[in-house]
Model the fold of this input.
Amino acid sequence: MDSVGCHHRGTAVSDTTAKPSASPAVLSLAQLLEQQPSTAPPCLVEPGLLPPQGILFVGGEPKVGKSLLVANLALSLAAGADRIGFPIPAPRRVLICQFELPVPQFVSRLAIMRRALGAAADQHLLVDTRATGHLLSAAQGLNHFVSAARAAAAEIIVLDPLYSTHDQDENDTRAMAALCQSLLRLRDASGAALVVVHHVRKSIGRHEIGSAFRGSSALHAVGDSYLLLTRPSPQVPTIELRFQFRYAAAQPPRLLQLDPRTLWFSSAGPPPARAAPRRKVDKADVQQALADIGHQARYNQLRDQIMNTAECSKRTAQLAISEAHQRGVIVQANGQYRLPL
Done:
């Protein structure tokens, strides 16, 4: 139950931290239009990457550089400086809630990055040193983050990573939907935009972005922007950024490279042009995908392997499995697919 006595799905914000409201909750269209600014406020990160009070999800495979890139972005926002190729219109107050590194180690990382900026970000970048152990999925934890955001007068809150802020099953749509409601409550109670670092599924297609995130069906209901980090090749020391925006056209992919001395990413130009993916997957592709997995595989495992090896869509992989099964190229038994004996 919230501060006005209404029940909501998800975690509640207590009366002590809920934002007081002297104005009525129900307004006419005329009243709402009067409150609108004459011009739309600029995005916190251009072009359209982080709208005011928006939610940006940043994801990628493990150790691809998500936390480093988000720390770069946080420092750039606090300094009001364009350091990684994204225009920052003005300095912003940024609160970082990170759960992976001990605070002294995290501060050492920031100190290395700070050398490129000087003191420009010092007063606007804030760190929640007691974030660890608090869960957004619990009322007490949500209240902690709201209180921290208000104490910092934060305009942007970084949560890195999302899985450390909850104890829910990320494969359970209802559990993730409840967690997303907690994100919305944090955003609304703090008035801040959110930058959320999250993991992706184990096997994702080349053209997947927002749908690549774990619990994506629930995240799509709250996310405004999605930034996906991938490695074009293990032999190339660059990462590729891919974008998906809810309210704007997506930006073309771009490459970044990391300077290990400064821990800053910088532009490495546009990614190389890729050959158009094949739309037809033949039986040899299905056989090879199954052989690469091993003796046998479940449907989802085989489908994802075909998507990766043939660079095709999920639908194309599904049709290929169905056709291969009908022609006897592969057989199914006890929920597993295998090659004929």
